[in-house]
Amino acid sequence: MASSSLEKTKDDTDKEQLISNQIIESMKKEDIEGQRKEFQDYVAVHGVSGYKQFLDDHLNQWMKQPLRIVVTGSSGQGKSSLINTLRGLKSKSPGAAKVGVVECTNTVTEYADPKHRNLIYYDLPGVGTSSYPRDRYFEIIKSQTKDYVEIRDFDFFLIVSAGRFTQDDVWLAEQIQKFGKQFYFLRTKIDFDLRNDFDEDPDNHDELAVLKLIRDNCFKELNRINSNVSYNDKVFFNQYKIY
Q1: Is the pTM for the entire model greater than 0.85?
Q2: Do residues 123 and 83 make contact, with C-beta atoms less than 8 angstroms apart?
Q3: DSSP symbols for 112-150
């Protein structure tokens, strides 16, 4: 029995050594010398069986990096409510973004996701107001972030509107594109529109027809503002309840 047990252990060790060698060889082929040396050093300390932990650590490396998502748009469009929804919180929950019938975001506010602390939402004040004019918008935003974060340092943008998309929204999209960043237009408070349509004429209410009308109107407004660019694949719709 002892001999069989030792033989099994040797087989496992040989297998792990083979996998370790294959990883090193693949790193040579990919010409990633830095990672290859890091892997070899790790194995030298932890043994060949350490390759599993090494791979797990590196495959999950992205989860350790901060992801900065910006929620922006004009004033009073429900940006803070959207952030609460994305974070799985109600407006009265501890740590929730403040919401109300008037503009509640007067300065850049950061909110970490409760489950993924490296996922950070930035609630930005509305663009185009006297306090946040277009020509100084991102300059003021930078001055209010903890680390003086510039637009190029954010990872992703959501441009929020509760009604018609405006010239300010398209201007934001153009500025974001200049820095090669990804964005989406997000039409919010769809549930309010559906409820209003139902209240006006419950007998003839057609939810699908209302949704199509809203969608078509969004595309029409964006095309009217800038007919040289198609944003059809950049518009998404969201409905949520404000508590």
Answers
A1: no
A2: yes
A3: E-SS-TTEEEEEPPPTTSSSS-GGGHHHHHHHHSTT---
